[in-house]
Amino acid sequence: MCSLRWARSLGFALIPLAVCCIVANLLLFFPDGRVDLVKKNNLTKYVWFFMGVGGGGLTILVTAISFLSLGQCAKSCGTETYAMCGSMLPALVGMAGSGYCFIISALALLEGPLCYTAQGWRSPFENKGPRYLFFWDTWSECIQPLHIVEWNMMLLSIQLALSTLEFLICTVQLLNGLVHAVCRPCCYKQEYRLNA
């Protein structure tokens, strides 16, 4: 039962992380609070990959619900071992979703935002790699929306941090389920031998 309580606590920990990932992704669509940029498609292409909504959000919510329902699974299956083995698949799904969120967020951060410059709408930092993040004087190339570089950096960094935490939590549960599946039958055999 201790393993089930641990899995449930991990499920509870994933819910706020997933919600924050969804909110951060949705905020990327409205830099400077402007709605017209979505209509005109003046957003970086990576925003449309929905890394926070799909990968770090909904996928992780499904994983969290699976972790939280392990107690019901154990009651219906009759044993904690089957429930813990069953938690490994949702953990892998969660790892895939959070990994997707991390990779797309990192690519978006490396490319930089799409903004209005002296040459029109373009991504001025696209070929500069991560160097532009440390040279604040170059951020003024983006005329509109105001503070778009800071906006993108903040939200994408939040998604990177949250997806890393989600990945670690899912990895812990995967290892928890694996150890439980392998060690629990061995423990039962030893207990049986001691009682016999």
UniProtKB/TrEMBL annotation:
InterPro entries: L6_membrane. It is a multi-pass membrane protein. Keywords: Membrane, Transmembrane, Transmembrane helix. One of its GO terms (cellular component) is membrane. Its main location: membrane. The chain crosses the membrane at residues 12-31, 46-70, 82-110. It is found in: Membrane. Belongs to the L6 tetraspanin family. This is Transmembrane 4 L six family member 18. It comes from Electrophorus voltai. The lineage of its organism: Eukaryota, Metazoa, Chordata, Craniata, Vertebrata.
